[in-house]
Amino acid sequence: MLGTKVSEIHHYPLRPPGFEEPLFPTLESRWAIAEHLASAPWLSRGSELPRGNGETVRRCEKPAHVLWRVDGRAYLVRRCPNGPHKGSLCKRRVVRVLERWREIGSWWDAERRMDRLVFRVLLAGGAVVDLAFERTSGEWLLVGVAD
Questions:
Q1: Of 6, 13, 33, 128, which alpha carbon lies 20 to 30 A from 44's?
Q2: List of E strands, 6-113
Q3: d(CA 40, CA 43)
Q4: How far apart are CA 120 and CA 125, in angstroms?
Q5: pTM of whole model > 0.85?
Q6: Do 73 and 92 touch, CB atoms closer than 8 A?
Q7: Rounded CA gap, 35 and 43, in Å?
Q8: DSSP 8-state code for residue 50
Q9: What are the extents of the domains in the chain?
Q10: How far apart are CA 124 and CA 90, in angstroms?
Q11: How many Cα atoms occupy the beta-carbon half-sphere of 121 within 13 Å?
Q12: Can you tell me the distance from the alpha carbon of 72 to that of 19, in angstroms, rounded to the nearest whole number?
């Protein structure tokens, strides 16, 4: 078993037939690799796994704002669905950053390309949410709520 690759164990080819290095010399080769990855059974199962300590995260894409005070405190500000007035704003202090990672998607498509920094944060009141900073536009999004 020493020297055996994971793709050989799972009987899944490392790259589509006919592809050698470099993988992306043309736009057509990028699409072929993207289609190859999209059909990979391990990729779809991996995206459904719970994160962290067994909790699951409901995915969403809602605009949000992160405000930084001079003293270094951060606040999540967004439209509050249960507010006293329709369209009112909710402001919650970010107590701590629990995790952070970078997500890159659709890199082969200039119109759908995604490059974001995601922060799993603990908010005052105990809610755990995922906030994403879109690196291309500079906008913040609420992208997940931990159950």
A1: 128
A2: 57-68, 74-79, 89-105
A3: 6
A4: 15
A5: no
A6: no
A7: 12
A8: P
A9: 6-47, 57-146
A10: 12
A11: 23
A12: 50
